[in-house]
Specification:
about 90 residues, mainly alpha, 6 helices, elongated
Length: about 90
């Protein structure tokens, strides 16, 4: 990203945190986990595949970051979402 905007890495990181309140990596993790949540609830893809699709190269790291941000593993999250009653059905 710093090459794209032709600025030093440290400057871009500092500016990003100042403007957003989050580090660049924390923001990226949040975006990836949000996308993973959509895939967990909207598909039957295996957890390792979802992690890979959203940009995590390691299954264990994906699970660690997902749990840090949601307090659940991806499998726990998917299971909990499937147990919730469908509010549209009567």
């Amino acid at each position: 990203m710093s090459q794209y905007v032709m600025m030093a890495e440290n400057y871009v990181s500092t500016l990003f945190k100042k403007k957003t309140g989050h580090t660049l990596i924390h923001y990226l993790h949040r975006v990836r986990v949000d996308q993973a949540i959509r895939l967990l609830t909207g598909s039957d893809l295996p957890v390792y595949e979802i992690g890979n699709r959203v940009g995590f190269v390691s299954d264990n790291y994906f699970i660690k970051i997902f749990k840090r941000l949601t307090a659940q593993t991806p499998s726990q999250y998917r299971h909990q979402q499937r147990e919730k009653p469908d509010s549209l059905s009567l």
